[in-house]
Amino acid sequence: MEIPPKSPDESEKSPQSKELLTSNTASTLCISSRSESVWTSASRSKWDIYHKPVIVISVGAAVFLLGIVITSLSCFQIKNKEVFKMCGPAFLSLGLMLLVCGLVWIPIIRKKQKQRQKSQFLQTLKSFFFNR
């Protein structure tokens, strides 16, 4: 088997220049993606803002209710009583955890929205006074 000859471009480039090229493009991509998400001023609807916590709350409530049903089934004379006694509390705790996480997420989003509004107001105020 013969080893194919290397192209002159590969042999001339130093490893430092390759590293600089990759790190430069990666940082540029990171900056551009972050700047798009932070500085967009398009108003979003309430559903766009709160859809993730609402989904987490509804899934948590459903799992919590399933845990209540499974736990209550362990009270009756059923063939696999031990399985219900183990799975019921697991679903209860998982549902409660999702429910609480979703309920805590909503005030966090509200606080971020207020901070974003304040920073936009300060930016416009600053540009008004310093651009004269």
Please report the number of helical segments.
Answer: 4
Q: Mind summarizing the main beta sheet?
A: none
Spatial shape: elongated
Uncertain residue segments? 27-39
Number of strands: 0
The radius of gyration is: 28 Å
Alpha-beta content class = mainly alpha
- Classify the beta-strand content into a percent band: under 5%
Mean pLDDT across every amino acid position: 77
Reading the helices and strands in chain order gives HHHH
**Relative helix content:** over 70%
N- to C-terminal separation? 73 Å
How would you summarize the topology of this molecule?
Blueprint (H helix, E strand, L loop, with lengths): L7 H5 L2 H25 L6 H28 L7 H50 L2
Helix pairs in contact: 3-4
Descriptive keywords:
82% helix, single chain
Q: Could you describe the 3D structure shown?
A:
It is built from four helices and no strands. The chain is mainly α. It has a domain at 85-110.
Précis, in short:
The chain is built from four helices and no strands. The protein has 132 residues and is mostly helical. The chain has a domain at 85-110.
